[in-house]
Amino acid sequence: MPYFETNDGVQLAYEDYGTGAPIVFLASWILNTDMWEYQVPYFLQHGYRCVMLDRRGHGRSDRPATGYDVDTRADDVAALIEHLSLDGITLVAQSAGGGEAARYLARHGDDRVARLVLLSSTLPYLRLTDDNPEGLPEAGNEADIAQLRTDRPKWFADRAQGYFATHLGNETSAALIDNLVRQCLSASPFATVEMRRELFNTDHRADVARITVPTLIIHGAADQSVPIDASSRRTAKLLPNSTYKEYPTAGHGLHITHAEQLNADLLEFIKS
What we know:
CATH class: Alpha Beta
Strand content: 15-25%
GO molecular function, one term: hydrolase activity
InterPro entries: AB_hydrolase, AB_hydrolase_1, AB_hydrolase_fold
Keywords: Hydrolase
Distance between the termini: 32 Å
Domain AB hydrolase-1: 22-259
Low-confidence stretches: none
Strand order of the largest sheet: 1-2-4-3-5-6-7-8
Protein name: Alpha/beta hydrolase
Number of domains: 1
């Protein structure tokens, strides 16, 4: 696996396959490049180049004590793009990766980005405040952080079925669920907590309003990790010219349970 060095000396791992038009995949909180195993082969077969990043504290990258704020993470994305001299990018961002994508565009512009895809995104602003009445109570997030610090494996295991919305008929094997939990636990415990608090409390409304590239927004209506009313339905209103799709039976893990539908929707958007 290749590495590159960020501005603050952190070694980040990435994967790079294919030679066509580039798709840069930004993973969810506590997941890494492995999460895209149902997307990468599909897009390679259709002639695209697939680039994936292990953000700091995740996967095979360094685990520094700093840099988990969204500005630094967005700059890490920029450093990868510059390192590989990528242009005409389709930026595909899942969950917390959506905040990195939006902040990257706000800080670095869209000269290198042709289009944006937001999957199950944490945008635009999750925390309940006086001027954000559709947000979620901060006490709930702090309770989750307390549980993560007490028994991190149990916290992920308890939420695995909801992640896939298996109660709506989405078939996932016990082995697949176990594999996902192992991926979640591979992230640094420190990074897990730091990013959890940061992504919940970061206001991206101004970032979203400034997006001008063609954008596709997809979210599962049964998402328990990032409720759709607090996230993508609001993001779509801030981007009235975006393409917006809801998957009625999908949870947060739609990149797995609805991979066939998702891949087809992504390909159609990229080709359009």
